[in-house]
Amino acid sequence: MAERILMKGNEAIAEAAIRAGCRHYFGYPITPQTEIAAYMAKKMPKIGGVFLQAESEIASINMVYGASAAGMRVMTSSSSPGISLKTEGLSYIAGSDVPALVVNVQRGGPGLGGIQPSQSDYFQATKGGGHGDYRMIVLAPASVQEMASLTIKGFDLADKYCMTSMILADGTIGQMMEPIVFEDEEPKTYEKPWALTGTECKRPHNIINSLYLKPEELEKKNFDRYEKYKLIEENEPMWEEYMMEDADICVVAFGIASRVAKNAVVTARSEGIKVGLIRPITLWPFPVAPIAAAADKVKAFISVELNMGQMIEDIRLYSQCKKPVTLCNRTGGMIPSPDQVLESIRKVEKGEN
Amino acid sequence: MATVFTKPKSLTDAPFHYCPGCPHGIIHRLVAEVMDELNIEGKAIGVAPVGCAVMAYDYFACDMIEAPHGRAPAVATGIKRCRPENVVFTYQGDGDLASIGMAETVHSAARNENITVIFVNNAIYGMTGGQMAPTSLPGQVTQTSPYGRDVKHCGWPIKVSEMLATLEGPEYIARVAVNNVKNVKNAKKAIKKAFENQIAGKGFSLVEVVSACPTNWGMTPEAALKWVESDMLPYYPIGVYKDRSAKEEE
What we know:
Number of domains of chain A: 2
CATH topology of the largest domain in chain A: Rossmann fold
Oligomer: heterodimer
Structural class of chain B: alpha/beta
CATH superfamily of chain B: Thiamin diphosphate (ThDP)-binding fold, Pyr/PP domains
Radius of gyration of chain B: 17 Å
Order of helices and strands of chain B: HEHEHEHHEHHEHEHHEH
Number of helices of chain A: 12
Number of domains of chain B: 1
Number of helices of chain B: 11
Order of helices and strands of chain A: EHEHEHEHEHEHEHEEHEEHEEHEHEH
CATH architecture of chain B: 3-Layer(aba) Sandwich
Helix content of chain A: 40-55%
Structural class of chain A: alpha/beta
CATH class of chain B: Alpha Beta
Shape of chain A: globular
Shape of chain B: globular
Largest sheet of chain A: 7 strands, mixed
Strand content of chain A: 15-25%
Strand order of the largest sheet of chain B: 2-1-3-4-6-5-7
Number of strands of chain B: 7
Largest sheet of chain B: 7 strands, mixed
CATH superfamily of the largest domain in chain A: Thiamin diphosphate (ThDP)-binding fold, Pyr/PP domains
């Protein structure tokens, strides 16, 4: 039977990864995600897995690259400055079409920034980060339960599409404790005929590689990869809608910001304001359909973010700028209060932007 | 007619892209001969670098992966930790291993990661057209040290084998050369030992192969081999710098 337990968000990711069949973790310490490494260090040796603390984020993502190429479910985790260091590896992993799960428990930036929660790596996660044309599947948990369920989903999507899934969490969800339930499910497995297993002299050698010196070959690789991305955009967007049926105002928020926003929506409704919430769960593929549909119904959007306004660009893009989009934000590790979001909703209701 | 000489079966039929007189061909062959002799082609997994040997994945017949610049030991670590039963090796040049990848090199050695590293030191960046390497000799003229390497300005070349031998971690560190028949034969012995060590579970084994780059040194192949003897080997002496098992047996 499924068990209900109290867990920290970061630990929920680690436990979920193990339940998803991940037996290889390579990481490097950084606040506020180090509990993931600590959990793995404790558990992996007892279940026949590997925990290895690498010499750097660069080394750890390349260990992930090697382990994934060897056919394993593998992960690493870090926080914003560390993810910047991993982007070289993320680009190679994308260019080589191998799966990986990468967790970013975001903190404020740029530079060394701070250690408090942030969502300021939205651009980095959804628009690339590393060099070259590529995408990552970006999953944004809003609860400790989702830290677990999206980790499992992330491994499945990574294996299914042979690419990186990134869990884009933040310091709040990473550090807070909530009760969660783990379903007793066997991890899904995927055939990996491309994996480096040794040829046993029975098949041609497998090559994992991102180098294509002939431009027509590299172009074809990129076109083919974008066909795969198109399938993902068609089939994998996930989002939650709350009180959107009759809404005049649409608040859009993900992760911890969505929980603050939801409180404000409830209060605004009690004041008679017809407001609803769209919470993207996948940031890439972005939930285009509900934003496009809302653009024909509501009078305005409000983007609630823990950054200087990053997702707001996608809201404008996919609403085709049909309606005004207001930013309600805090940054640098600060979190907007429900009152701040409520005030934004009231202003938009009154027609003040 | 009796066959007296064949290509090792651990090499594919792909023609090498290396310049005339480049010793990479010899070193590839030595690695492949060792794989044949140890009968490990079927369980070997090779990691290619960024640099002249980047396309080594086309030449070795075993499973191969191409690593980001300098990261081959980290990629090899990931593979070996997943598949300890396989034989995992990297093939890297001096820019890759001793400059951008020095952290990965030192730490995989410190962990005594059970992998084999073939380190080709030709004292120059070949692929990008002959820039100063971390192993370029004092006074050596390159594209980015056109007046000769000035050690006051850009420091001293790194003696990788000597440096790694100071670590507790690694099992075996040796420097060899491929500038004459005797040295080629000895190079093969060291490479074989580096693979045997891994198979025996002994740990990190690195063979530094002092090589030549006639094209970017601006020399004929023959003159380049002479320069190895006259200039490189005095700075980078051939020898076994660490052999833990041999020491323990004493």
